[in-house]
Fold this sequence. Notes:
Residues 208-386 form the Wadjet protein JetD C-terminal domain. Residues 10-188 form the DUF3322 domain. The chain is of the alpha/beta class. It is built from 19 helices and nine strands. The protein has helices at 5-13, 16-23, 48-60, 63-66, 96-103, 106-122, 127-132, 134-139, 144-156, 175-178, 180-190, 202-205, 222-229, 239-243, 264-268, 308-320, 331-336, 357-368, 382-393; strands at residues 32-33, 70-79, 83-93, 214-219, 234-238, 251-255, 276-280, 299-303, 325-326.
Amino acid sequence: MIIQPDKIRSIATSWYKDILSSSVYGIPQFPRNVRFRKVKSNETQENFFKINTETDKLINGSKEKKGYGYTVELAQRNDRRIGPQKFPEKIYFETLDDYLKFFRKEAQYAEFIEITQRLKRELPHLLPWVESNPMKVIDNLGKWDDIIKVCYFFLENPMPNIFIREIPLDISTKFIEENKVIIKYLLDILIEDYVNKDETDFNKHFNLKNNEPLIRLKILDPKIAHEFFSGVDDLSIPQSQFNQLNLPCKRAFILENKTNYTNIFNFLTLPSLEGSIAIFGKGFGVGLLKDATWLSNKQIIYWGDIDPHGLQILSQIRGYFPQTQSCMMDLNTFTDFSSLSVMGACTDVTEIEHLTPDEHELFDYLNSMEECNRLEQEKIPHEYALKMIYEIVNI
């Protein structure tokens, strides 16, 4: 019937973003009117007491009674039966102070203005962003001293090439990591010409060193282990350093790595082989190997599960290294140990580019099976695996 203080609060709350935005370059415009439904003449007789009660409540919450907040202007109407009666005609916030006190936003607004003025002096290129995103400024109150420190660092070092926690600033070592969203908005503006726009990863986007994935490597030739790694034959190497290796080996085995790491035993029990290394793959993560160009002239032997996904991974590796051979990933092996097969996932993929005709036929066969279409590599007896490894090495 009569608009009440809670409704006024709800309506006026929606103004806050616009008020902040207009404060970036000037002073917000006041007074501001509250739009509301006015009482119609035919409602007065039927709701006389309710109208009076609600009008009193409206006045008691207004600037007239509290000294701040909304102002109510009343208009008087005369009715032949009930006589003169006053109704709200206009409701408005007269000044910015009235508005801020009503919402208890005085301190928050003052801090916003302080930040805005500082950015205007020190980083004026950010003002259009602040005008469009004032609530993001509000959401990060208490952090702006450190945010601005970060901005200055990147302005002076737009291509730092260090780890994020190496940035030499008097801030928490985790501050940038915990505030990547707001920092990215700002740096994309301040150092636009230096960012890698196609990279979504924060570190790559801003030319920071990344926490690289590790590639596990087993040296099967003791001579190579002693000459290059002081006899250590089981290593985990960051991807970029792995790509720079140039080991004098003739071949590299790649074994699939399942999530539960059961295949690690196959990896660890590979026999010593002259001129050979083994790489513990990561399923479809074998893409980590694609830039290791030193493998291009090696014999590559891939041993994974005999299932649709294992054959897709084989195709993926062969796309990087066309000379890749498969080991124990054929129909004979699957048939010989079919009693050990389990249910595996099928795939919607029907054409795989880098499989041989026999491998593709096996893929189609496995992908069409309703059950027991997966032979996990760890199910293959060790003696049989050694026999097949020695055979492919001596081809």
